[in-house]
Amino acid sequence: MAAEDLPSEFDVVILGTGLAESVVAAAFSRVGQRVLHVDRRSYYAANWASFTFNGLLTWIQEHHEESQPEEAQDWSSLLEEGEELIYLSSDPASISNVQAFCFTSEEDEEEEASSPDPPNTTEEETGGANEDVVKETSETESADLKEEETKEKPEERADGAEKEQRFTALNDGKSTVQTDVFRPITQASKTDGKEPGADQPTASAAQSQSEPAKKKISYAQLVKEGRRFNIDLVSKLLYSRGSLVDLLIKSNVSRYAEFKNVTRILTYRHGKVEQVPCSRADVFASRQLSVVEKRKLMRFLTSCVEETEEQRAYNGRPYLEFLCDQQLGDNLQHFLLHSIAMVTEDTPTEEGLSSTRHFLRCLGRYGNTPFLFPVYGLGEIPQCFCRMCAVFGGIYCLRHSVSCLVVDKTTNRCKAVVDSQGQRISCSHFVVEEGSVGTDWKMVTSPPRFLSRAVLITDGSILPSDSDQQVSMVTVPPIAAGCPAVKMVELCSSTMTCMPGTYLVHLTCQSVGSAYEDLSPVVTKLFRTPESHDQENCPSVLWCLYFNMTDSSGLEVEGHHLPSNVFVCSGPDGSLGHEHAIKQAELIFQKILPEEDFCPPAPNPEDIIYDGDNNSSSMGGEENGGAGEEENDGAGEEEEEKKEVLEENDGEEEKKEVVEEEEQSLQTEGIRLQPLETGSGSVGGSDSCSPPAGSQISRRDAVQTPEQHTASTHNPQRESASCMMGN
Amino acid sequence: MSMEDYDYLFKIVLIGNAGVGKTCLVRRFTQGLFPPGQGATIGVDFMIKTVEIKGEKVKLQIWDTAGQERFRSITQSYYRSANALILTYDITCEDSFRCLPEWLREIEQYANNQVVTILVGNKIDLAEKREVLRQRAEDFAEAQSMLYLETSAKESDNVEKLFLDLACELIREAKQNKLDNNDTAPMPGEGKTISYLSCCSLN
Q1: Structural domain that includes position A585
Q2: Contact residues, chain A, for B102 at CB < 8 Å
Q3: What does the pLDDT look like over A156-207, one tens digit per residue?
Q4: What order do you get walking across the sheet with A449-458 strand by strand?
Q5: End-to-end CA distance of chain B
Q6: Cα–Cα distances in angstroms (integers) from residue A161 to residues A99, A144, A183, in the given order
Q7: CATH classification at residue A384
Q8: Which of residues 93-122 of B touch A (CB under 8 A)?
Q9: What pTM was estimated for this model as a whole?
């Protein structure tokens, strides 16, 4: 891990590892450009990152601290004749109003759990603590963790005990939590690999586990199991026919990730959470809908697939008005507006219909809902693209930044950058995250917008069902006039984003006020917190976090006064899908390399054929391994250097068939995206195409050419029609 | 591929400082090559080799760092779903040994709990330049409950053994997890390699 010097010449230097930047990096590296990709942070994915619970506590602490503007060093000595420097901003204030609350007890409650009284009192009193107290708690905690990290394993036991006492100290005077300070130290020591229930050594604790009264998970347990959490800063889903899924498949980046289906769509209505029927099977199975409603809904969904004269007549008028005139009734209108189109009451009809169509097109590709979620969280996705970039030679350096640009005064182009170590690195193009560009340089057209975010760790699902492993998308229409519509995603532990026995809930809306002001009323209505009333049956919030993030959807890649070979990538936007970032990345790529293909498929390592017996390796890049050597068009291109073979193959063999592979034993967790889902299996929208919970979906890369792929994915209307209507 | 041509598939991930010989170990094992002075491997995500252990075909998918270790910038997703980790250091480089605790922290943070970790001291062909004594490394490995092996990718010493022992260990774990009869689990040394081509010829 020794620090070396970076090379001093690149084609493209990229600062920031958010989604758009990472896609850009992969795209350039893939076509042979020399890429340097740096991030000043110690983690990947910038504002798209996922954190373990402990990592998130550190992140919270960082955002509480007064950020001291780094002293801009004077690098003018590095300048040559006719050059000038542009300093980048080192203080991206994209996160604000960070507030964390803990509503569970700090310590394990074995004593209480074995007694008949539920430990509700602790909840209220801890929760009643004011914000500063809570902040203090989390800060102290993350400081502990940092310490812990620097220590060796054998010391952890002692450290655990120490921490325990500190917790107790924090509790003193603030709550009546009775913690057993002198319980065996081993409990606080590492017990990796065990389920949370398995680390209770005492018999009484084990007994209380089996009792029906559920033992509430303590803060100490959340910390201890912290690495089981992967908590995303942004909350988005992948539309199964959205541009991100298409790109993942096209580029083969999908091989680095696994996905879970969102298993159900819910909505909040009349004070209750209800399931939204969206597939044909759902509609018929629905108990909320009358027979007449079922028929009306099917007819409506079928009819809106294609644009009609009637629909055009409503252009410019609200979608709600259109829906009203379809005589669908309140139920259906609510589902269609809020949960399927996911628009507001005044969205124009054409927009509402296009969202509805997009939703329908995405249904049934991988499951019963239009959405996928990456196992281990969304923060995986930028990293997957970074891996692709690195595989093709891109150089990665975290904890490293670019302090300024070297600009040629006559051409007004960026010739080089100066990194945080004062090294001059020449480059032809520079791509930068929005946060590192000072406001003076941006062309601001509209006032800055913000997103309000909340992250909850809860102890139960918002709508319990037969399976405790549901992934739910919940739409919450404005709960009062002037309130924002809230999108909520509830993740279960099999998405590998939270510890077993808990759920991770993400809430997102466009900011009206602060995140707490916007979202806590919704949290209070849907969950049990110290502020909520009559929420006996709702899941309890154990811990929650509120923060605001800049919504940078308005920023253009060239919306700045920087040199023309500098491109700006915006951070996360408020929409549910990833369209904005992918579009932006593709745009940047096309501006720089208009002739090149954007993220062509990387060769499948499975197809690289090694001849182990002699000292030359032959490989046919995207050869169909199944077809054997005979068809190896690349046979004449045998090279000792793999690199060259691959590069030649890039051009010539892309139309080659992709190997059909089944990699079952690797896919214990989720779905691998497939280049082409075969029509029979996945179209139909019935239960038959949705994977049974927890099952393995083997990768079945259908044999195809890129052309076929395009054709198949761009003929969605027919499929969605059959998806809704097919028998 | 209508028929599976293997009984097990395992993902093995290499980590360790830059320059300790990770890529050489993989290439020696999968291709029988020792590429002198070879730079970063461009465009190859992982390499495949199918081995046979007690009559069962085991497909090993061996992932390399893609150079991201150079500036300590390995993506977390690299560790996900790995069945085994090969933590490599260079016996002629004290520094690469000193960094091991740092690597272990990353493993603990991001890798699966059940991951099998093996510590490998590479470059034993350069015995005269040795900086890390075998005993020291063995003690360290034992303290961290890792397996330990010394190899030479150049001379092909212990390279086959490394991967075959790992395969045996992984099968044993897999069988234990299934609560199978442990008697049938293979012991280290019982594996043999079969060429990649022969397993593809089924198609």
Answers
A1: 9-49+378-446+554-592
A2: 1
A3: 444 433 333 333 333 333 333 333 333 333 333 333 433 443 333 433 433 4
A4: A95-102, A541-551, A449-458, A503-510, A486-491, A472-476, A264-269, A272-275
A5: 6
A6: 28, 12, 9
A7: 3.50.50.60
A8: 95, 99, 101-102, 105, 108-110, 113-114
A9: 0.78
